[in-house]
Every structure is written in C-alpha cells, then in structure tokens.
C-alpha cells in the first residue's frame, strides 16, 4: 500500500472475515449486521481467499494496461451505457462547485457475464474477458453471502429474503466497474475526484490500494478517510438495500477526493455493484415505490446534472434528510435487528 500521512481523520470501520461468513459463524453474522446497522461501511477480510487476492493483483495489472491505451482506442468501447463499456472522465458532476468527475471507467455487466461473452469487441477487452468474468464470479459470490447472512439475521424467509431479489432469472444492472482517476497532468481542466453520493444498488464490493475514499461518519458531521488495506475489500450498503430493509441497514454517503493539491499518481479502484433485479419494487423512505431500474436511472441522471438536489445524490442520507426520511414521515420504525446489543444503537 502506498500509504501517506493524512490530515483528515481516519474512519474506524469494523472488519468482517469472509471465511467466517462462508462457514456460517454466528458471531461474525452478528458483527456484520451490527456494521450495516451502525454505518453501512465495513472491511471484508479476504486474506483467507488466495484466489481472490491474486485476482486483485491481476486486475490491477490489466487495468493499467487497458487505461494506458490512447483515448481513441478506449472510445471504441464506449457504448453510452451506464452498465457496460468505456466512459471517459468528466461525464458526471464533481465534488466541488463547477467541477466534473475525475475518473474514467470500464464496465462489464452481469448480463454479459451470464451470456458468457462481452459485447465489447476490442482486442484489449477480449484478452482480459476471462479474468474480468472470474473476478466477477468471486465478487458476486462474496456479496451474495453477505446478503444471505443479513437475511438470516433479520429473520427473513422465502421471497422476502434479500437474495430473492437478486435471482439471475430476473435481469439486473449488476456490474463490475473498473475506475482510473488519472494523475493531474492527464486530467482535464475542471476534473477532480468523485462527488459525494450513496450507491444505488444493494451492496458494493470495492478494492482500492490508494487513498482518496472518504465516508461521512454515522453522526453525519465529519468526513473521514477510509484507510486502504491490503487483502481487504471495503463493502458498503447501497440505497436499494437500505430501502428494502426499511432503513435498518444504512447506506453511508461517500466520495473520492484528492489527497494532495493535485492527483500525483493514477488511482485505481475496482467496484462490483450488486443490484436488485430490474423489475423488483421497493419503497423509499418517503413511501414512494420504485423499481430497481427506475431508481438506478433516476440517480444516474442526477449524477450527470449539475443542478441535482443533493438529497437525490445521497439517497436522502445527509443530516436533516435523515430526520425527514426516517422519523417525521413515519414510514419506518427503527428497531435494532434482533440480538443486536445496546451499544451498537445508532
Ligand atoms: O473509487 C472509489 O474508491 C469509490 C468509487 C465509488 O464510490 C463508486 O463508484 O460508487
Ligand atoms: Fe460509491
């Protein structure tokens, strides 16, 4: 890890061990639901999974190779889609006034994974497809285990279990997103970082070796850095899981900022976005019913529009919005999940 001294505080996040979740360890599941209840952000210790850790290194090498190509080559993979293909930097709103985002992405959809071939045809993607698919399989498995344990802890059964909304028989917008935040001399004028937001879907499995990720602390007052840890993913709860858990599981507001005055090296991150089946409905904190796809499209439009109300970007998770979404309107009664000890109450 290229660790650097930070002026901003570090967030203290709980660590959940993937192998303990896999084996159904009861204490680990309790810790998991506590983490999702308290802040919706936690480390997932992957050190028991050599294959996944090795794939992370291979993915990074492939990303350096892919993003290092000339823009016109990468643009051959552009599909004007939020779900697959290449997208250059600067298409979304940035973290500060009058800025745009400072990252480019390559996305591989679950749809392509299930079909067994990518819709992108450049040689550079075709050469990496097997690795992208193998990695997607592992990230999908890890996120589905988390959903299973959360369903168990919340006493959900049958069609009400979270996994039921992520059944591959229903098309979804789940995808693997590879991000590069290019260093400053390759950045366009006003491009910088990643604006604050909550994630759209159910769970995000994020791998990043470099600093830059910040999350808003559960008191909604302070930004803290999420320390990059080798062999650890950072998992966060997205809007649709928060909504489907009726606010029990929190989706934290996060962003990516520069750690120096300028981005002094390329920053790479790998995000697997687990999302519900497109047509599956849920009710947001104000009682409005959305399908997963409607919510996805609504939020992506907001990410692109400079005038979007901040509440949309942050899934109504900023201070005051919390009060409105949870208590004043009264759709959700927040009771800690069964078995959660007092000290973890929000
Ligand atoms: O690049 C990162 O570390 C975070 C990216 C992120 O939050 C996102 O793509 O939703
Ligand atoms: Fe995010």
From TrEMBL:
Give the UniProt record's GO annotations in the biological process aspect.
small molecule biosynthetic process
Q: Where is the Fe2OG dioxygenase domain?
A: 169-276
Q: What InterPro entries does its record include?
A: DIOX_N (IPR026992), IPNS-like_FE2OG_OXY (IPR044861), IPNS-like_sf (IPR027443), Iron_ascorbate_oxido_reductase (IPR050231), Oxoglu/Fe-dep_dioxygenase_dom (IPR005123)
For this UniProt record, the keywords arranged alphabetically read as follows: Iron, Metal-binding, Oxidoreductase
Q: Which Pfam families match?
A: 2OG-FeII_Oxy, DIOX_N
Give GO MF terms, alphabetically: metal ion binding; oxidoreductase activity
**Family of the protein in this entry:** Belongs to the iron/ascorbate-dependent oxidoreductase family.
Q: Report what the protein is called.
A: Gibberellin 20-oxidase
- The protein's organism comes out as Clohesyomyces aquaticus
